[in-house]
Amino acid sequence: MSTRQKPLAVPHTSKEVQPQGSLEKLCVQEDFRFLKIVAEGRFSKIVLVRKDTDKMALKAISSESATYEDFKREMDYNYFLSPHPNIITSYNVPFILDNLFVFVQEYAPYGPLSKFVLGGKRAGIGLLEPQVKTMAQQVASALEFMHSLNLVHGCVTLDNILVVGPNLSSFKLSDFGSTRPVGSLVKKTEITSSCIYPPEISQILPQEKYYMYTSLDVWQVGILIVQCLTGCDPWQEADITDPFYCQFSDWHKKKSIRVPDLFKVFSPRLVRLMKRLLEPKSTKRCEIKEVNKYLSDKWICRECGLGSSRTSLQKSESSVSRMSRKSSTRSIRQRNGPLKSSSSVRIVKFNDNSVYVEQ
Asked: Which residue among 109, 133, 305, 355 is the one 20 to 30 A from 164 at the CA level?
């Protein structure tokens, strides 16, 4: 005999829901039935609720981390862009609960894409090629729509791509907190996955300002495709101090003919697309619609499984170690001068296996 699970009770609060600006007063306990917290971060959370027979998501943003203007801008952009089929639907129902700014949006039953790439059965392996192509096509469509309106999303990450269809068949772009008009001057913020920042932003310090252009979204889609196909970040940061990015940069600039190890599973056509999406110079980066030209091509040369991904990483780590050893050798030579030839060195071995080197 199955028992019906009781819904989670709304925490009692002595504070009444108060309107601010154009926010309407709303009795939360009467309008929504709280079910569970779907996701929670440092400054925001997503709460699953039921209204009548429909499931919805409440996005709650801490008023300590965002101003009312920041909250309203995100909600307005989301509501304005909602008609696109690959953008999460937002409803014009904002309100305040305790110290949280809240608005209502569509519930994504399968959660963020990061759950499938970084967790679950295919963690560290990557998704299937058809699934990645579907994701790339739908996300590119959403971004092309935004770019046509002179808007930059600014944070196209695994966490901000929501899965709304079974078997990774449908995706929607979410989280418009970083969205700004093209050419806006914004501050750089510290984020967990710094590889989504292109070189022109990686080279500046946190809290310094940079201009937002659509080329930022293009770079992030390139990173997204690599992550989904391989289950790995291509590098930690797009900076010359990062050996993995340095290897990619040298190859991209044709200073080296060696293909980055993580890219060796990619077909020539996908390599061409990656070079265009991950172009180090923002002014030369392609437009997001370029992705559509490569959807009918084969993207993987061989099965991108756990073995090939690990092998690529091991090779990359080995190459980094070799580069470090070469760098150390160069430093020693610079300090001590060139090594003498073997003809000027006499090695004497004693019976107790000790070795004496005479120059």
From this structure: 305
Please give the C-alpha separations between residue 60 and each of 2, 153, 333, in angstroms, as whole numbers.
33, 20, 59
pLDDT tens readout for residues 257-288: 888 888 999 999 999 999 999 999 999 999 99
Looking at 3.40.190.10, 3.40.50.170, 2.170.16.10, 3.30.200.20, the CATH number of the domain 28-106 comes to 3.30.200.20
**Alpha helices of 253-337 — where are they, by DSSP H?**
268-277, 306-336
Condensed to tens digits (0 to 9), the pLDDT of residues 141-155 reads 999 999 999 999 999
Stated length of the chain: 359
Query: pLDDT tens for residues 200-258?
Result: 999 888 889 999 999 999 999 999 999 999 998 999 999 989 999 999 999 998 888 88
What CATH superfamily classification does 114-314 receive?
Answer: Transferase(Phosphotransferase) domain 1 (1.10.510.10)
Alpha-carbon distance of 102 to 91, in angstroms, equals 11
- Amino acid identity of 262? L
Unique residue bearing structure tokens 């946190």: 206
Identity of the amino acid at 54: D
- Find how far residue 189's CA is from the centre of its chain: 14
- Asked if 182 contacts 210 with a C-beta cutoff of 8 angstroms, the reply is no
Say how far apart CA 277 and CA 272 lie, in whole Å: 9
Question: Measuring CA to CA, which residue among 121, 176, 129 is closest to residue 152?
Answer: 176
For residue 100, the model assigns a pLDDT of: 86
Domain extent listing, the chain: 28-106, 114-314
Q: 47-74: buried (b, 16+ CB within 10 Å) or exposed (e) per residue? A: bbbeeeeeebbbbbbbbeebeeeebbbb
